[in-house]
């Protein structure tokens, strides 16, 4: 089915006969595959009598060679899937198969993309970036401190470099424009965090998505914010170079060297917030983060520090 899509991706008309000949199948089999493409991948295909079939818009698919060419420094081996349950899940399976890290898993779509706190991550075909970078961490806990915040900062800088206006951060690792989420980060870890472990840095970026009724929070995309479509290969390359730079700084100098830069971009610095931890809610004012990436809140006049993957922040209405 995707071989057929690759023939159509130029956005030009192709006759049923030519497509059938290229694939070695009948015209009616071509027709059936086209119907599957529309139904399964949500693509729109024009069918015009006498001219053939045309994708409603040309498509640029992920291309490891192009990504490698555009990101010479972060030249990690790349595995690209047309469709996968979750790039993080596939990365964890690859670690089990003893695939040597670092390596990168990308997909055109995810059928079970996972977000933080058990949420699903909406992952339509060829519209966004679903990115999981696997690292082997040997330095113990210090190498993990603030790591998810560092990834958020690198994602934010990559989006700014490509010209998306107004991008900022929300603790712990959301990337927002205003109040709307444009990218999310999910770190998953296997092994012994105090000794040797593998960490999967999962990044989802809303790139060219313009419509969906599946996301249950305020969201936006690079395209919606800047009014133009983006080449995902360029974005993956830019993100790789940015991550390479920030991860090297983090490894050499620890999170404390990045703390001030992160705070500079924190959209909710000084704001009145509620910290949600399961059924519990703590109201306070954001003071910043500490040298390990934990959140500093003023609660009832006293500074308190919070960390943990299951926490999330909401703005208070009175802020
Ligand atoms: C969040 O809830 O903010 C985190 C979203 C993380 C989504 C990305 S998409 C690539 C990787 N694979 C997944 O299943 N999740 C992460």
Automatic annotation (TrEMBL):
This is Bifunctional ligase/repressor BirA. Belongs to the biotin--protein ligase family. GO terms for biological process: regulation of DNA-templated transcription. GO terms for cellular component: cytoplasm. HAMAP family: Bifunct_BirA. It holds the Pfam family BPL_C. PANTHER family: BIOTIN PROTEIN LIGASE, BIOTIN--PROTEIN LIGASE. NCBIfam families: birA_ligase, PRK11886.1-2, PRK11886.1-3. It comes from Pseudomonas umsongensis. It comes from the Bacteria. It catalyses: biotin + L-lysyl-[protein] + ATP = N(6)-biotinyl-L-lysyl-[protein] + AMP + diphosphate + H(+). GO terms for molecular function: ATP binding; biotin--[biotin carboxyl-carrier protein] ligase activity; DNA binding. Residues 65-251 form the BPL/LPL catalytic domain. The keyword NAD does not apply. InterPro entries: aa-tRNA-synth_II/BPL/LPL, Bifunct_BirA, Biotin_CoA_COase_ligase, BPL_C, BPL_LPL_catalytic, HTH_11, Transcriptional_repressor_C, WH-like_DNA-bd_sf. Biotin binds at residues 86-88, 110, 114-116, 181. Acts both as a biotin--[acetyl-CoA-carboxylase] ligase and a biotin-operon repressor. In the presence of ATP, BirA activates biotin to form the BirA-biotinyl-5'-adenylate (BirA-bio-5'-AMP or holoBirA) complex. HoloBirA can either transfer the biotinyl moiety to the biotin carboxyl carrier protein (BCCP) subunit of acetyl-CoA carboxylase, or bind to the biotin operator site and inhibit transcription of the operon. Its EC number is 6.3.4.15. Keywords: ATP-binding, Biotin, DNA-binding, Ligase, Nucleotide-binding, Repressor, Transcription, Transcription regulation. Residues 16-35 bind DNA.
């Amino acid at each position: 089915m995707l071989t057929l899509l690759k023939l159509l991706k130029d956005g030009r008309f192709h006759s049923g006969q030519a497509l059938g000949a290229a694939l070695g199948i009948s015209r009616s089999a071509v027709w059936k595959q086209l119907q599957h493409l529309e139904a399964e991948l949500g693509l729109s295909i024009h069918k015009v009598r006498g001219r053939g079939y045309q994708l409603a818009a040309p498509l640029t698919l992920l291309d490891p060679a192009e990504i490698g060419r555009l990101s010479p420094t972060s030249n990690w081996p790349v595995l690209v899937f047309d469709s996968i349950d979750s790039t993080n899940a596939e990365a964890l399976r690859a670690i089990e198969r003893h695939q040597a890290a670092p390596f990168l898993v990308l997909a055109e779509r995810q059928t079970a993309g996972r977000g933080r706190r058990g949420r699903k991550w909406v992952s339509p075909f060829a519209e966004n970036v679903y990115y999981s970078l696997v690292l082997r961490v040997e330095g113990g806990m210090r190498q993990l401190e603030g790591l998810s915040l560092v990834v958020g900062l690198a994602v934010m800088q990559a989006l700014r470099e490509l010209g998306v206006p107004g991008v900022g951060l929300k603790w712990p690792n959301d990337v927002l424009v205003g109040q709307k989420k444009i990218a999310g980060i999910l770190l998953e870890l296997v092994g012994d965090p105090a000794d040797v472990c593998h960490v999967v840095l999962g990044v989802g970026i809303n790139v060219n998505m313009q419509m969906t009724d599946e996301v249950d929070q305020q969201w936006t995309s690079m395209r919606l914010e800047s009014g133009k479509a983006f080449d995902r290969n360029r974005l993956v390359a830019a993100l790789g170079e940015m991550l390479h730079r920030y991860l090297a700084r983090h490894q050499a100098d620890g999170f404390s060297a990045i703390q001030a830069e992160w705070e500079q971009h924190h959209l909710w610095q000084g704001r009145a917030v509620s910290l949600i931890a399961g059924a519990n809610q703590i109201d306070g004012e954001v003071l910043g983060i500490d040298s390990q990436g934990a959140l500093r809140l003023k609660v009832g006049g006293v500074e308190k520090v919070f960390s943990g993957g299951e926490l999330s922040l909401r703005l208070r209405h009175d802020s």
